[in-house]
């Protein structure tokens, strides 16, 4: 079970949003590369990065910051936001990304995702961001009529490495992960699922260790880490099966 610390990039800085609204950005670090190093030093083994400007614009915007992050950490990095073509995917993987996350293009051009999975096996993740159970695209600015599980099932057998499922209504507001919807998704498909949106406290970390959550690959944490609501050492110990909380 992996806990993915998140670096969300806006205008080259490490920020967190509420409900995906760019106007609500709180800046946590002017130096994303330093933040990446800090997460590695705290014991995290992966890094989740989102180019927020890129997600809205439909092309990579924070490339320099992502490049600096890749140089600053030895941890594998997965990146989403504005990546829409095979050429862009190939470019990012050649620059050192472990995984590329495809969101809007997964709705608009599912065949491109399948082609990417064949071309770059094990290195393509699908980001499914939902509001009210329906998939949102273009940096969450547009809603679709597509259901979460309906979209996920399009990629069964395609070789998708993971699905990152975000409940937009909970993202950035520390209200707790939508475990019911996340586990329903994980049980509906064979693709590993990563929970995202709302991770708030150690209670959510403990919830990750429950039997019905063990189908998940892990969960993403942003604001709770930055605000100090979750202690990295304690959280990672729980996920390793150590500590009193893990035994409850």
Automatic annotation (TrEMBL):
<dbReference type="GO" id="GO:0005737">
    <property type="term" value="C:cytoplasm"/>
</dbReference>
<keyword id="KW-0368">Histidine biosynthesis</keyword>
<keyword id="KW-0963">Cytoplasm</keyword>
<keyword id="KW-0028">Amino-acid biosynthesis</keyword>
<dbReference type="InterPro" id="IPR044524">
    <property type="entry name" value="Isoase_HisA-like"/>
</dbReference>
<protein>
    <recommendedName>
        <fullName>1-(5-phosphoribosyl)-5-[(5-phosphoribosylamino)methylideneamino] imidazole-4-carboxamide isomerase</fullName>
        <ecNumber>5.3.1.16</ecNumber>
    </recommendedName>
</protein>
<dbReference type="GO" id="GO:0000162">
    <property type="term" value="P:L-tryptophan biosynthetic process"/>
</dbReference>
<dbReference type="Pfam" id="PF00977">
    <property type="entry name" value="His_biosynth"/>
</dbReference>
<dbReference type="InterPro" id="IPR011060">
    <property type="entry name" value="RibuloseP-bd_barrel"/>
</dbReference>
<dbReference type="GO" id="GO:0000105">
    <property type="term" value="P:L-histidine biosynthetic process"/>
</dbReference>
<comment type="pathway">
    <text>Amino-acid biosynthesis; L-histidine biosynthesis; L-histidine from 5-phospho-alpha-D-ribose 1-diphosphate: step 4/9.</text>
</comment>
<dbReference type="InterPro" id="IPR006063">
    <property type="entry name" value="HisA_bact_arch"/>
</dbReference>
<dbReference type="InterPro" id="IPR023016">
    <property type="entry name" value="HisA/PriA"/>
</dbReference>
<keyword id="KW-0413">Isomerase</keyword>
<feature type="active site" description="Proton acceptor">
    <location>
        <position position="8"/>
    </location>
</feature>
<dbReference type="InterPro" id="IPR013785">
    <property type="entry name" value="Aldolase_TIM"/>
</dbReference>
<feature type="active site" description="Proton donor">
    <location>
        <position position="129"/>
    </location>
</feature>
<comment type="similarity">
    <text>Belongs to the HisA/HisF family.</text>
</comment>
<dbReference type="InterPro" id="IPR006062">
    <property type="entry name" value="His_biosynth"/>
</dbReference>
<dbReference type="GO" id="GO:0003949">
    <property type="term" value="F:1-(5-phosphoribosyl)-5-[(5-phosphoribosylamino)methylideneamino]imidazole-4-carboxamide isomerase activity"/>
</dbReference>
